[in-house]
Design goal:
Chains: A alpha+beta (166), B mainly alpha (358), C alpha+beta (373)
CATH class of the largest domain in chain A: Alpha Beta
Shape of chain A: rod-shaped
Number of helices of chain C: 15
CATH class of chain C: Mainly Alpha
Strand order of the largest sheet of chain C: 1-2-3
Structural class of chain C: alpha+beta
Largest sheet of chain C: 3 strands, antiparallel
Low-confidence stretches of chain C: none
CATH topology of the largest domain in chain A: Alpha-Beta Plaits
Bound molecules: iron/sulfur cluster
Number of strands of chain C: 8
Number of domains of chain C: 1
Number of strands of chain A: 7
CATH architecture of chain C: Orthogonal Bundle
Oligomer: heterotrimer
Distance between the termini of chain C: 34 Å
Number of domains of chain A: 2
Helix content of chain A: 25-40%
Largest interface: B-C, 30 and 32 residues
Shape of chain C: globular
Helix content of chain C: 40-55%
Strand order of the largest sheet of chain A: 3-4-6
Amino acid sequence: MALLTTFREVGTYFREIYSGVASLVRGMRVTGGYFVRPQTVTQRYPENRKELKMFDNFKGELILVHDEQNHHKCNVCNTCMRKCPNGSIEVISKKIEGADGRSKKVLDKYIYHLDMCTFCGICVSVCDEHALKFDQEFEHAVFDRSKLVKQLNLPGSISQKEANNE
Amino acid sequence: MYDFAPFIDSYTSYLNAHFSPFWAGLISMVSLGVALLLFYAVLGLYLVYAERKVCAQMQNRMGPNRVGPMGLFQTIADLIKLLLKELIYIRNADSFLFNIAPFIVIVASIMAIGSIPFARGLQAVDLNIGVLYILAISSMGVIGVLIAGWASNSKYSVIGAMRSGAQVISYELSVGLALLCAITFAGSMQLSEIIASQQDGWWIFKGHIPAFVAFVIYLIAGTAETNRGPFDLAEAESELTAGFHTEYSGIKFAFFFLAEYMNMFVIAALATTLFLGGWLPFHLYNFTAFNTVMDYIPPVFWFFGKTAFVIYVMMWFKWTFPRLRIDQLLALEWKYLLPISLLNLLLISFLTLMQWHF
Amino acid sequence: MEETLLDIDLKDREEYIINMGPQHPSTHGVLRFETCLQGEMVKYIIPHCGYIHRGIEKMSESLSYPQLVHLTDRMDYLSAHMNNEAVALCVEKAMEVEVTDRVKYIRTILAELSRIASHQLWWSAFGMDLGALTTFFYGLRDRERILDIFEETTGTRLIQTFITPGGLMNDVHPNFQKRVREFVTYFRKKLPEYNQLLTGNVIFQERTKGIGYMSKEVAISYGVTGPSGRGSGFHCDIRKLAPYSAYPFVKFNEITATEGDTFARYWVRMQEMSESLDIIDQLVDNIPQGDYMLALKAIKAPKGEFYHSVETARGELGVFIVSDGGPNPARIKYRTPNFSNLFVINKIAAGHKIADLVAISGSLDLVIPDIDR
Ligand code: SF4
Ligand code: SF4
């Protein structure tokens, strides 16, 4: 009887070894399988810069949309500035004399602090004029922090409304 | 064919003819030392590279691919970087021991490769106790590890070093017993004779299942001896940050790093020599045409090919398995590997006694 | 004998104390475990948090409801969608509005996708904690596909700020359904690989089974929720207990295990991944038409106190809003799952080895910014 138990114990001992080794081999099959059939999923980044295309919705950097005539759509309502949770936007307006002689408020500088932006997208969604957009730029690294403060209205640009009034 | 002995003989006789015996001996020793060191450095660096490539492929990555074609010079660049790095002085560390530890580790692994037969006649010293010598030397490395852990004055290092001590002392047994199996078959401890005894077939084939079991045990215990995953408890980067070499920087760190790879090479080379026929080509029984073709491949290739295979298997282990816990590690040795290898040795002695191996 | 943290004399010089963290590979962030050792054994652990405290709750008091959503992403960044959803649901509850079915469906799909992504990352990191380095890359490889889905629709990969009170920031991308379906088939194929590589591995099982036992009572008294609590048999799945969004429309099981050890917690998460795939499967083909955003004049909670909780990848995230009727909350409190899950560690890891401590803290799946907020 005692002998039988011993035999059974020895049996379990070897069975344990067998099942342990089998489980190890199963794991090795996975890694070994990838070794013989490489499926590289990583990319070589600066080399593939040309083919690298971000998704349409990608939130790269905030831009003020300009058309071919260098016209943007901002009418200086300041909503984006107020709704931005981080104070990353400064809309600076100036008064100009309109064609009809009345003074009007137009965009002087649209300052965007990229370093303070958390890419929440609120500014884009609150702008009723659809004046704002995110572009596909993703290489934000610069050597100087001051470079992260950007003026979004291009030099010499005027708003479409202004252009239409003239 | 492809015997290196004549070259070496002619070199020594040239030296003897042109210099006094003292200078001849010195020059031959120095040239040997330089050759071994160069070999060591190059091999160590390329083993690191190989490991990085192998694991990258297993993990669906590319691995090093920036420095040189296919990243071939990556590890050399790394070495240069490590050479230029500051050696950080640890306050309250035992500076003498702290500085000497990496050298102990690396010297131990350099000395071990001295007696490995790379090809016919290509062996620095053919000791008559070659196996014992390698075993003794390679276990010297753990002293360096222990000293490094102790002298660093870091709590993580001490834990790592103690683990490593317990581990190496235990696994030494299995390594020794597994090697004893091959020695029993061959009837000699001299590496060249062990190879000669495999002229008609490698021990892993000739020795039936026990030889295979001994080979597997040797592989497991050898991996454990080199402190490599899944037995890398002494480093255990998720527990002990880097274990015994946490406090090391620059080239001293590189010494530990290189020594790990060279120890792996030594273990693999020994496995090749004892179980896989060393530099002997693969022969199929009575299949002369095939055998002649095999004979044309130089022994160096055979040796390095087999060693590379064993190293690959060790890498495969590392990149597949999770790490063991210290008590499990010791349980594996004392409850599984040791009894099995003792039983195995008994079987092999019996086989040898009855001349039942081929 | 119950020893509380206060009983321990920290001045005891004889103790071998190591600081795991704030910079340590096993804590996955700036968390510090003051660990007292006796040889390899862990005597006790005092977790120290606060290294990444940013005052999100206080900051939120000066932000309007749509604005404060973007801070919740930064709590449990692996469950960003669920965090957003929690605030959105609480505000909607306060305003007594209900979003369209389309929004509910999309929110649920996104939440389940992020649950899978989060568990994938946890699986990767857990394997790495135990020394199996290859898991990390397999987990990330598959997670990448989910992040691509997110990126296409929301524009960002990790912290999306997509779900907002009243609906969604924008409608989903036309490719969304196709990609999600592709992912479901892809990941169904890859999941067995995870099990072959790690779950079945004898070393892994030895390392996790019977380690870090947490009884149901302990789980309940410490408030351990999510997969960690369910591993101890604590039925705490908010998706089942108080179904929100599209969860009433789908059939799924609450995964629980009774063993309460590290392996049970592991197993629950592994099962949850395939359960989430099933949920997505049921939803993705019948996303109803509708608006993605309610036309709300102003998003303002009426005067009062409101609470809503959701099931994130790590447990119950509760949002408690005290409103004085203005556009900003007067006080907002997040009941984050990781904060409760963290403090059970001394209870379940004391008496184990250091290596087990790493395994146990890995199995609790801690995200440190969620602890500190
Ligand atoms: S960008 Fe849009 S929201 Fe901002 S000020 Fe101009 S019009 Fe207003
Ligand atoms: S994305 Fe958000 S944080 Fe950035 S500028 Fe727009 S509103 Fe401000």
